Amino acid sequence: MGQLHEAKVPDIGNHTGVPVIEVLVKVGDVVKADQGLVTLESDKATMEVPAPMAGIVKDLKVKLGDKLSEGSVVAVIEAVDASLLPSGEGARRADEGQTPPNVAGTPVPGPSPQPSPAGRGGQQPVSVSSTGRTPDLECRLVVLGAGPGGYTAAFRAADLGLDTVLIERYPTLGGVCLNVGCIPSKALLHAAAVIDEAAHATAYGIDFGAPKIALDTLRAYKDKVVGQLTKGLAGMAKQRKVRVVNGTAKFVSPHELEIATPEGSKLLRFEQCIIAAGSQALKLPGFPWEDARVMDSTDALALADIPKKLLVVGGGIIGLEMATVYRALGSEVTVVELLDQLMPGADIDLVKPLAERLQKQGVAVHLQVKVAKVEAGKAGLTATFAGDKAPAPMVFDRVLVAVGRSPNGGKLDAGTAGVNVTDRGFIPVDRQMRTNVPHIFAIGDLVGNPMLAHKATHEGKLAAEVAAFEGAPDRSPEWTARVIPSVAYTDPEVAWVGVTESEAKAKGLKVGVGKFPWAASGRAIGIARTEGFTKLIFEEDSHRLIGAGIVGVHAGDLISEAALAIEMGCEAGDIGHTIHPHPTLGESVGMAAEVYEGTITDLYLPKKSGK
Question: What are the residue numbers of the active site?
Answer without folding.
Answer: 582
